[in-house]
Write a structure and sequence with these properties.
alpha/beta; seven-stranded mixed β-sheet; 10 strands
């Protein structure tokens, strides 16, 4: 008679939300988090120097507010990860609108495959022309995945919808950049992907705003920040160099041999 293998315990979960002057969107986001099928153990809202009522909204909705005076999403996100206590840290933006099962699906993926250091999912637009919301989001994410995946040599992370193990963050936190001119999710992917697996997860259900793409100038700023994020990692992570290094690391891992320069 075989005994059933006991199910792995659910990991503790923190949700990290960086915010600056976005009280109305944050309130909508927190309301969506309040009706999750699997509630988070804590919600950490990182106030990045707001002059509106963002901090008050977060406190009123039961979130823990952490202040980050260093400007920019990279610094605010890092402060949130540092402050979070959960074994799994979920990240979304203040204007994100997660589906009711978002936390449950992300946590289940982390519990199901402990070999993966970070998971990421897609999104759809919740504003803008209704007929264009999902097609434009699909095109945007496809372009993001192809361009960034080429630079990285593996799947990128999408900051509006990701899950990061706390152990993974502690391994890379001293190497991530806090520069406000960079994309925090792409920079994080460079460092996480060096030693940990990143996997794409379908069907997580995340709504995002089209606001960052509302003007040509804003869109160009996002593209420029993407180029800066890639270039700041060169020459060490120049694509062919990175691809070869990661390929060799994976080969050594399969053979059970420590890769050159690997931590012991």
């Amino acid at each position: 008679m075989h005994r059933a293998t006991p199910a792995a315990p659910e990991p503790t979960v923190s949700v990290v939300i960086p915010v600056k002057d976005d009280a109305a969107a944050l309130q909508r986001c927190l309301r969506a988090l309040a009706v999750q099928t699997l509630p988070a153990d804590e919600i950490v809202v990182v106030d990045n120097g707001s002059t509106d009522s963002s901090a008050e909204v977060a406190t009123r909705q039961g979130a823990r507010v952490v202040r980050c005076d260093t400007p920019g999403i990279p610094a605010a996100s890092a402060a949130g990860y540092d402050a979070a206590s959960g074994e799994v840290m979920l990240r979304l933006d203040a204007d994100g609108v997660p589906d009711p099962r978002w936390v449950e699906r992300m946590v289940e993926a982390c519990r199901r495959d402990p070999r993966v250091g970070a998971w990421t999912g897609g999104a759809h637009f919740v504003d803008g022309p209704p007929a264009l919301r999902r097609p434009l989001a699909a095109v945007y994410l496809l372009a993001y995945g192809l361009v960034c995946g080429t630079a990285l040599g593996h799947a990128p992370l999408f900051g509006s919808n990701l899950a990061l193990r706390r152990s993974t963050w502690l391994d890379v936190r001293d190497r991530v950049h806090r520069d406000p001119g960079l994309h925090d999710d792409l920079d994080l992917a460079f460092h996480v992907g060096e030693r940990h697996r990143i996997r794409w997860l379908r069907g997580t259900g995340m709504g995002i705003s089209m606001r960052p793409f509302g003007s040509g100038r804003a869109f160009l700023r996002r593209i420029a920040a993407g180029f800066r994020t890639v270039l700041v990692h060169w020459p060490e992570d120049f694509p062919p160099v990175r691809w070869v290094r990661l390929g060799l690391r994976r080969l050594f891992h399969r053979l059970g041999v420590p890769a050159p320069g690997a931590r012991r």
